[in-house]
Amino acid sequence: MSADHSGEIPRLALEAFARSFHREACSYGFTGVDYLRFVNHLFERILEGEPDPEVRPGPAVVSAGTRADLTLPLMGHGVALERYLEARHGPVLRRWLAGRAGRYFAMSRTTAERLDAERLIRDPETALGVIATPDGSPLGIAAYFGLDRAQDRAELRVMVGEASLRADELLEEAVRLWVRYGIEELGLRKIVASLLGADLLGVRVHQRLGFDLEGVFRDEVALDDGFHDVVRMALLSPPQV
Length: 241
Description:
Elements: H1 11-28, H2 32-47, E1 74-75, E2 80-83, H3 86-97, H4 100-105, H5 117-122, E3 127-132, E4 138-148, E5 153-160, H6 168-184, E6 190-196, H7 200-208, E7 212-223, E8 226-236
Helix pairs in contact: 6-7
């Protein structure tokens, strides 16, 4: 199933978001009247002229038929990607892994086992990068898990460590750089991403970068507040010569 790269969020992704919102609303105690009031507030914001987020076409991640040797750091617009250094980044990685986003970031997609920092760092099938400001302050972690050299595929994961990385354009630029690194340096043919159903920003960012929706897995993972849907997206890189 292909995503619509013109900017429309895929129907299955919206359904997953609706399921996640409904679960949260039920735990909060929403009644039928509360849902109607909520919808009315949304319409009021639209009628008051609340601007829609700018829909930008997905930038080219890598040109077809090219192959370059990329080394970290990579500099982008407002963010950089640095090589993970245990002495420098270990303490902040462990702090981020203790949070909810970190627990999902480090969860095995096959066994649901939570991987600790030491296993992530030592795993030969894992590549780690640090998302940072241009002056080197860490903002988050980018990773490729399950690096399969025979199939040239891996799973991309991004963990937001600092709130400023939640800005749409910064997160998109960080993912774009990491995808480019995966294709040009690691030689990946297919990159997959597994996003929580409530993560519409993540879905939008990956969609703009050319990822297609492959499916929605209902109640796939259990976190602190119950089971959550997972939206699976994938990017096929152009042939390398």
